[in-house]
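HUMAN: Can I see a protein plus its fold?

ASSISTANT:
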Amino acid sequence: MCAARTGAGDDVLAGLPVLPVAPLGDSDARALLLANVPGPLDARVCDQIVAESHGNPLALLELPRTWNAADLAGGFGLPSSQPVGGLIEQSYIRRLRLLPSDTQLLVLTAAAEPLGDPALLYRAAGMLGIDIAAACPAQDGGLLELGGRVEFAHPLVRSAAYRSAAADDRHRVHRALADATVAETDPDRRAWHRARATAGPDEEVAAELERSAGRAQARGGVAAAAAFLQRSAELTVDPARRAGRALAAAQASCQAGAFDAALQLAATAEAGPLDGFQRARIDLLRGNIALALGSRDAASLLRGAARRLEPFDLDLARETYLIAWGAAAVAGDLEAGRIAGEISRAVRSLPPPLGPPRPLDLLLDGLALLTADGHAAATPALQQAAESLLEISREDALRWGWMATAASNAVWDNEGMLAVAARKLQFVRDAGALAQLPIHLSALALARAWIGDFAGAASLVAEIDSVVATTGSRFVPGAALRLWALQGREAESAALFASVMERDAGGAVAIWAHWAAAVLYNGLARYKEAAWSAHQATSNTFEYWVTVWALPELVEAAMHVGDAELARDALKRLAETTQPAGTDFALGIEARSRALLSDGTGAHDLYREAIERLSRTRLRPELARAHLLYGEWLRREGRRVDAREQLRTAHHLFDAIGMEAFAERARRELLATGERARKRSPGTRGELTPQEEQIARLARDHLSNPEIGAQLFVSARTVEWHLRNVFTKLDITSRRQLQAALPEHGRPADARPR
């Protein structure tokens, strides 16, 4: 097999079978581009990039490889003015320099305007005194096309034209484009061109950019806001005003996931005359960046920032204490526990907030109680907080919302966790706040894993991986660990366990890994390993969620290895959290665990209670495990017929959900009763990719293509393309058939046991 460019090697390859590789169609090109670009991208800019790629995959991939979220700035970014280094770009520069001077200036004007609007180009050319006929040499040379839109032959022609131009020429064309842009209809793009046309400080332009940043943030475009504010600071003369704008730019850059830029802007701000409040906000910024990058110093930095904020803004201080408490929980070690204790004492000594308590106040006070006095004392406050957070606002979601599921998690309220996680994730997605996106995705993925929606969880995990790769943040892969453990994927889980333990053998990351390992090994019926892992996961006295969730695993594994004392101790600790919560989730898990330590009628009644309570929830994996444990107990009691009923139910549930290790455990138990059950084969699994699963579920839930595209940062055409693939794979012809084809949480119908 060999390959050749079009027209090359025709004489050598004559007579051989050939497969012409055609350019990508527009919908495929958009899918490829948007799958590799972090955050939202202006739809008009996206269309222009796709048009100029001419279906060339390499051209589409070059953009996200060389431009980060801050460079793209939501569609306001421009090719860098740094020297051109690529061989292809250098070849285009040589061709550009052979053009007449007016043609070169016209090509530069087109390169500086990313929308490809020919009317705007004509107006700008007139202001530069250039006849539009000057475009002819560039068109004849195969570099530029003027039609319904302005298109370059290749995106690298645009970057070569812009990056190789003299600074004075770039200023001239941006000035012309600013004058040619209608201020009433597109004030932000006009302000951007004015800023690019300005060589030195200009307060009028800086103020206009600051207003544009406000509009961008109101629309949810944090990357564009960061770009506006950064340029505004550069054009500002007054030292105090410059420092304030640099600080605002740093905060927006941090939200957009551009951490290096945020730190540089913070240093610029610190070089100016800042007041005490501004310096405290810089400390807060550094703490937030440390948290996003996985630094163990984050909790300490944020606690210090909260203290310094108290005299200036008590509300912001309380918010910062909440984030600091969360950072300590993420760290999960002894030092973090000590810091959390200090935070809790500081919070309880603050004056009460004015007016009725906000969701933030309820959550912070509940967590302070949890740290100081334990679950029984804190549960009423945390339940009140969980209720209030169901209506979390957009502003709160973007500022501290990554902590919003803490209350639901602490009081065994998975429905609340699902609702809050989905609501705040939508706000963060709409804003393109990449710095926070992974933890919001993880919260929803975890909630979906609890209810057995593994397809939904997998698509969210894939999105986490993509965002983390883009921002360079360090993130606890808790959702992936949980998902793979429930699925019984031993090889993948073992590799991730090893990676996690190498990175952090003593903090919250390790707790997640040990919990997942305990679940995996209980599914594989390797109870000695499960007991060891669960014991490791539950030995931390500060972490309040995973440590508690691992206790049922410890009870189950300990009883299987004959360590009743260890199981009783775990059950006692579990009941201290489940009894105050009082939910069916909590009491169902407690009843299932308590049944393992019981005999006779007591065990029978507890298993029936566990099944009854868990049946009233959507927690299918936990319900299936209750049927499994009940069936195993019945078989040991010699009640084989009754055992088969429970084990058959468990096996069918595990098989439908995709819990392969537990399904195999149930199958072996059924064999022991004298009944055979088929093993799950690869052919029974759905073939949809995670993104196809996600789009199919949204379409099944009656969202239109534009609505799906808006939620997933892709175009409506990309959604249409994915749905065509879904229809083909599921052998259906319309959206109406998705309800039958995806009846259970998006899993293809043929993935269920037949």
Remarks:
- DSSP finds 43 helices and two strands in the chain.
- The beta strands are 144-146, 150-152.
